[in-house]
Design goal:
4-stranded antiparallel β-sheet; elongated; alpha+beta; single chain; about 200 residues
């Protein structure tokens, strides 16, 4: 029943948008636009207050608080090492369709709660995904959403994460997960000025 209700709210949203598209007389078009805006605002407010996910009307907080170049930021970073123990930043699209931002947040909140067997399973899965993506990139092939239409025509992920410019030419021998701490100002002055603390290293 809940799913049917969500489908109904979305179909009504589409119908109101179609009404705007079909309206030709200026007064009618203005009324159609106002109706669509009122509906979207009302349903978005309801979803927010009730914490009810009714895509595209979502309760999620996308941006919270004020940013500053001096704000200390903590993120999770995933790196691979090769046989010579050189480190390579893993392409954030290696986890597709999962966005790396979501993976990082999950890792911060949930990884420490897992038992040793569960941690082993998670790291084994991540290592396999990272190595599979490395092989594709090293061979000059696209990964994630770019596989079918290529980088120029494919619709990007909603989160445009910066991508490394080089790929490890040889297989990964280990996966390293770091906590990275930095401020925008420090990175603007020196892109390498990031404090990294090793959380875990996995070797298959």
């Amino acid at each position: 029943m809940v799913h049917l209700l969500r489908l109904g709210t979305f179909l009504l949203f589409l119908a109101l948008g179609l009404r705007v598209h079909r309206a030709r007389e200026p007064g009618a078009r203005r009324r159609a636009i106002n109706t669509l805006l009122a509906y979207a605002l009302a349903l978005s407010a309801y979803a927010g207050f009730k914490q009810w996910d009714d895509w595209p009307f979502s309760p999620y907080h996308i941006l919270v608080g004020r940013g500053s170049v001096a704000t200390s930021i903590r993120t999770i970073e995933f790196w691979g090492t090769d046989a010579e123990r050189r480190e390579w930043r893993i392409d954030p699209y290696a986890w597709s369709p999962l966005v790396e931002l979501k993976l990082s947040l999950w890792f911060q909140r949930e990884f420490d709660r897992l038992d040793p067997e569960q941690r082993e399973r998670v790291l084994r899965f991540l290592f396999a995904r990272a190595e599979a993506s490395r092989r594709e990139l090293a061979a000059g092939r696209s990964i994630a959403h770019e596989r079918r239409l290529g980088p120029a025509l494919s619709a990007p992920h909603w989160w445009l994460a910066p991508r490394p410019v080089t790929t490890a030419p040889t297989p990964y021998t280990a996966l390293r997960v770091y906590t990275a701490r930095w401020t925008p100002q420090r990175v603007l002055d020196d892109p390498g000025n990031v404090e990294r603390t090793l959380l875990v290293e996995y070797r298959p």
